[in-house]
């Protein structure tokens, strides 16, 4: 589970938009990219994101 404090400081690496936790993924509220979470670590790489 991702810590809420960590989620507050994370930003989308593509558009710098705010992110939120949805369906076990970190989702950008601005551009909609979905970043995976592996072993409780968010993978905030544009190459790893889903559209």
What does this protein look like?
With 51 residues, this protein is an alpha+beta fold. The chain has one domain (4-48): Single Sheet (N-terminal domain of TfIIb), CATH 2.20.25.10. Helices cover 12% and strands 29% of the residues. The protein has one helix and four strands. The chain has one helix at 4-9; strands at 19-22, 25-28, 34-38, 41-42. The protein has a four-stranded antiparallel sheet with strand order 1-2-3-4, with no helix packed on it. A hairpin with a 2-residue loop joins strand 1 and strand 2. The chain starts with a helix and ends in a 9-residue tail after the last strand. The mean pLDDT is 94.
The CATH architecture is Single Sheet
For the report, how would you describe the main beta sheet?
Answer: 4 strands, antiparallel
Query: Averaged pLDDT, please?
Result: 94
Instruction: Based on Cα principal axes, name the global outline.
Output: globular
Approximate helicity band: 10-25%
| CATH class type | Mainly Beta
Order of helices and strands: HEEEE
Physical arrangement of strands within the biggest beta sheet: 1-2-3-4
Q: How many separate helices? A: 1
Query: What is the CATH topology descriptor?
Result: N-terminal domain of TfIIb
Radius of gyration: 10 Å
How large is the share of residues in beta strands?
A: 25-35%
Low-confidence stretches: none
Number of strands: 4
Class computed from helices, strands and strand pairing:
alpha+beta
């Amino acid at each position: 589970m991702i810590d809420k404090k960590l989620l507050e400081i994370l930003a989308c690496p593509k558009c710098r938009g705010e992110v939120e936790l949805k369906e076990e993924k970190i989702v950008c509220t601005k551009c909609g990219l979905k970043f995976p979470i592996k072993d409780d670590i968010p993978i905030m790489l544009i190459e790893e994101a889903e559209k």
